[in-house]
Amino acid sequence: MSSYKHLYQIILGFAITAIAYSIFKNFIYDPEASAFLIHKTNIKRPIDFPIWLNVMYVHVVFACIATITGALNFSQNMLQNKPTLHRWMGYIYFASVFLVCLTSGYMAPHTTGGKITSIPFNVLNVVWPAWIVIAIVKVKKKQIKQHLHWMVRSYFFCFSNAFIHMITFVGFHIIKVDFEIAYMFGVYGAILLCVILAECMIRYVEGNKKEKLSMES
Ligand code: HEM
Question: 0.85 exceeded by the pTM?
Answer without folding.
Answer: yes
